[in-house]
Amino acid sequence: MELEDTNPWPRRIILVGAGFFIIASIAWLSNADNINQVFDPRESATQQTNGDGIHNIVLGEGCWTITSIGQIENLNVSVFEIEGSSLGDEITESCRTDFEPQSIDDTEFVIIKKVKIAQLANVSIDVSCDAPCDGLVLYFNSDTQFYEDLIQPSFIFMISFCCLGIIMMPLGGVLMLMNRAKQQPVNLIQPQDDMVHDPSTMNTTDELYKLIRQTVEEAESKEKQNIPPPFAGQGQTDVINTMVEPITSEQESFNQEKTSENSLKPPDDAWKKWDGG
Known about the structure:
Layout: H1 9-30, H2 32-39, H3 41-44, E1 47-50, E2 53-59, E3 62-69, E4 75-83, E5 86-90, E6 109-117, E7 121-129, E8 137-142, H4 143-150, H5 153-182, H6 205-225, H7 249-264, H8 270-276
Antiparallel strand pairs: 1-8, 2-7, 3-6, 3-8, 4-5, 4-7
Helix pairs in contact: 1-5
């Protein structure tokens, strides 16, 4: 028999979590254009360069992601500081950021490198490749700008509802399993026909007493009849076991001598007459 949940809250939590997740999914699909403007480097990049060669741009403080469209073999991109009118040291310090380029039209983006800029500075970008790369476009995205775009009210609404749905649905499932584990199965026993009494024919106290007394007396009489006799041998015939002793070797030799002695005697009493003379 399937157990019913006595506590309705686990199921309610699952339903509310599923509702939050569905609302977040609908909001995400309806705001696809805004999402594309944040994650697509073609829309969100603050700086970009075209083709190979040396390009001077200004980069602010933060972690910068340099992205290109498609994979380009033997592509080298170097970032140098500009000190006055001359090139300074190359910026080789890498960094980590949550920005991942993607778009709704399935364009393939490739991250060339990530560099960390300590402060606002003029930098020189040296781009070189073996094959002609006149149509090459490099996109520069800052993590600072990326986080500012994510704190928009619409994004906060979608992310919050999505996280609540992901948390509440498993939580409700765990609570439902715990609630079912605490319950014990209940077996319903159908009353038998002889146990159902009509209230109009219910016995009185005296009748019940007589019925119980009669039952007890019958049980005692049966026990007296089934009592075994005090002695185990009564009522049974004794069986006398007779044992035949085996004949020993001495008795057998004595019998043989007796037989030989009797065989030497004549069959009649003639020897007595001869002996008496």
